[in-house]
Amino acid sequence: xxxxxxxxxxxxxxxxxxxxxxxxxxxxxxxxxxxxxxxxxxxxxxxxxxxxxxxxxxxxxxxxxxxxxxxxxxxxxxxxxxxxxxxxxxxxxxxxxxxxxxxxxxxxxxxxxxxxxxxxxxxxxxxxxxxxxxxxxxxxxxxxxxxxxxxxxxxxxxxxxxxxxxxxxxxxxxxxxxxxxxxxxxxxxxxxxxxxxx
Length: 198
Fold this sequence. Notes:
This protein is mainly α. The protein has eight helices and no strands. It is elongated.
């Protein structure tokens, strides 16, 4: 944690609202992104991010400076999103006017490629939605935020081995679902004369 952030957090804990506003500005993007990946649409993500900062503000005096602040804050966000999932059991994502998960661009710009990327991004959203809330949080924290197993375990109140097990199972399930959703190769039936039968 940078010295400036430590000072801001200390001031915020002492009731300095301006310092807390600066903390919010520094973390609003990662908190929103986590909420978006958990909840799947922009409006719910904005509401969840706002609720995260309200809860963080109320609990700030109990924050332990020995703990990594980003982990503490994203734990609040992920727990809130898990609660939202339990209440609503979201089954679809609204893809209108929402940011996309980034899939590396491996070729030049082209209409066909752009359409393929959009389809792949939608598939990634649907695959994430197929995971249970805690598995989804673990995947997002590990592969989008590069959190260690220990940090994820602390955030989700799990053992490190339970986190590794969840991630292993989630990767297996995601890979299986991804492969199942890929287009099947076209099989051409041959006649006795070696020409395709249509």
